[in-house]
Amino acid sequence: QELAGKEVSFEVTVKEVARNVLPELNDAFARSLGIMEGGVEKMKSDIRDNLQREVVARTEARTKQNVMDVLLSVAKFPVPHSTVENERQNMVRQALEDMRARGMKIDTSKIPDGVMQEEAERRVRLGLQMRAIIRKEDIKADDAQIKALAENIAKSYENPELVVEWYMNNPQRKSELESVAIENNVVDWVLKNAKVKKEPISFESLMGQQA
């Protein structure tokens, strides 16, 4: 209140002015990123390959999500309440475990009743719809498809052969990849038997830089 109507001035001393300096794009820079052979050309090739894999992965993920949304939109049947509730409790438990793993303290008494109910019902309904298609069309996945998924995951590792072997020789991990392969086959079946409209998408939107 004492300063009201008065001019106030401040003196600011600048100690340092900094600006971004981009490193020179050369073999030394490539070595600093762990690329010991091939230099900057190898670095560019790796970046290009990684971007191509990411574009393919995101495009396939968007297509799969669109297919799942369509399947869900025509799944008008009732779903068992007990199954939905079990799914909801599993989702809540997993969410709590994830938050605790990140060091977050959760007061479970403040979790609202019925939280994640809608998403749980969505998962159950979509799962039943998928199983109905898989059973009716006898959709399966073979070892070649499962191995292809393992090889795609292994591309980002230093010893991809060992990663592929680990997936193929681990029953639980192989089963997880089999489920993904079957889902992919369901998506392929839907795309072959439905009217598909292709729409272009910009690289920025695909990579999540635009809404």
Could you write a compact summary of the structure shown?
By secondary structure, the protein is mainly α.
Q: How would you describe this structure to a colleague?
A:
- With 211 residues, the protein is an all-alpha fold.
- The protein has helices at 27-32, 39-73, 81-101, 117-137, 143-154, 160-169, 171-193, 203-206.
- Helix 5 packs across helix 6 and helix 6 (160-169) packs across helix 7.
- The longest helix is centred in the first third of the chain and has 35 residues, at 39-73.
- The protein is extended, with a radius of gyration of 26 Å.
- The mean pLDDT is 88.
Number of strands: 0
- Following the backbone from N to C, one meets helices and strands in this order, namely HHHHHHHH
Query: Helical proportion?
Result: 55-70%
Determine the mean pLDDT: 88
The percent range for strand residues is: under 5%
Rg result: 26 Å
| Poorly predicted ranges | none
The rough form would be described as extended
The largest β sheet comes out as: none
Distance between the termini: 46 Å
Class by alpha and beta content: mainly alpha
Write the layout of secondary structure elements.
Blueprint: H1 27-32, H2 39-73, H3 81-101, H4 117-137, H5 143-154, H6 160-169, H7 171-193, H8 203-206
List keywords for this structure.
single chain, 211 residues, mainly alpha, 63% helix
